[in-house]
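Sequence decides. Our protein:
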Amino acid sequence: MIEQTLNPLAQPVASDPERRTWLLATGAAGGVAAVATAVPFVSTFTPSERAKALGAAVEVDIADIPPGGMKTVEWRGKPVWVVRRTAGMMAALQGQEASLADPQSARDQQPAYARNASRSIKPEVFVAVGICTHLGCSPTSVPAGSANPSVGADWQGGFFCPCHGSTFDGAGRVFRNKPAPTNLEVPPHRYVSETRIVIGDDRAA
């Protein structure tokens, strides 16, 4: 009597095929919903578009860089300099070999096609990662004739790291007796036209 008062419509589950079918359908729908909910959650673990882009090659328009000017772009989270050297800047790369730690770029800091005096594909365009090889500071460009006392009166132009005093010539070659152990890194790069380069991809170089 008490059971009928609490649930007068109760019947054994096995005797109600329609109810069993309804329960199975409800369970299946719940499972589908759970999967649908999990998909967006799992997708949050995939790399973001920016993270993927950090490793991708970067195409750069160099047409707007004036002679003696420099453009900085980001590649793999690093600053990369693109310098358009003047005739005077290219001439200054000669005659300083005795003062440089690795004048012939023997150490592996550049692709094979940049292992030359200008450390570049074309002498007038220099591409380098703008990070000092000592402790990762960012050097600054210091032109020839600068009044900066840290580079000396006979400075021919290049780059100076203010953190610990390392100096590099206009091809990113480090001077002797400086904290930086190697020349600046030259990243893989190639030309896709006279005015555009791709940094991070040199398959056609």
Q: What stands out?
A: DSSP finds four helices and nine strands in the chain. The first helix runs from residue 2 to 6. The mean pLDDT is 82.
